[in-house]
Amino acid sequence: MKFLVLHGPNLNLLGRREPGVYGILTLAEINLSIAQLAAELGCAVEFFQSNAEGDLIDAIQSALDEYDGILINPAAYTHTSIAIRDALASVGIPFVEVHLSNVYKRESFRHVSLTAPLAVGQICGFGCESYLLGLRALFSHLKNR
Ligand code: DQA
């Protein structure tokens, strides 16, 4: 199985960005943990981060026929981007949405996800572990399908 891991805007600053909210790990360190888990599970992962909505949409569209699943942290676009939601709906690739922070404990504008209703599921609040739980969940969902 092959998975695409997508990181949305400002996640390139992890480690320096609001560490009290998002933790001290950098994006490279998070990606390394994901890659290690993927190797344990025997699947392949590729990573992409962008601050631009259109680039994330292009990446989702290019995933068609290339990946079995998508692990995505759309970051702030979670709460605003109909276009990213439409891209995920268009390709129909099963995806799990993850967030480092517990968005439901935060400002009310973070309580709405435009993408989660299309997801296999959503995991939030566990820092880097959200990605690892998400990958495991996506993997077993696809294996048991
Ligand atoms: C986030 C939560 C979003 O509300 C926020 O805009 C982010 C990161 C998270 O991983 O906790 O950029 O997706």
Explained architecture:
The protein is globular and about 35 Å long. 38% of the residues lie in helices and 18% in strands. The longest helix is centred in the last third of the chain and has 16 residues. It has a single domain, classed as Dehydroquinase, class II (Rossmann fold). It has 145 residues and is α/β, with parallel strands linked by helices. Helix 2 runs parallel beside helix 5 and helix 3 runs parallel beside helix 4. A five-stranded parallel β-sheet has the order 2-1-3-4-5, sandwiched between helices. The structure holds 1,3,4-trihydroxy-5-OXO-cyclohexanecarboxylic acid. The site of 1,3,4-trihydroxy-5-OXO-cyclohexanecarboxylic acid has 10 residues, from loops.
**How do the SSEs run, as a string of H and E?**
EHHEHEHEEH
Strand content: 15-25%
Tally of individual domains: 1
CATH topology: Rossmann fold
Average pLDDT works out at 98
Unreliable segments of 5+ consecutive residues: none
Portion in helices: 25-40%
CATH superfamily: Dehydroquinase, class II
Task: Please provide the count of β strands.
Answer: 5
Biggest sheet record: 5 strands, parallel
In which order are the strands of the major sheet placed?
2-1-3-4-5
What spatial form do the alpha-carbon principal axes imply? globular
CATH C-level name = Alpha Beta
Tell me what the CATH architecture is.
3-Layer(aba) Sandwich
Q: Which class do the helix and strand fractions yield?
A: alpha/beta
Calculate Rg over CA atoms: 14 Å
Question: How many helices does DSSP assign?
Answer: 5
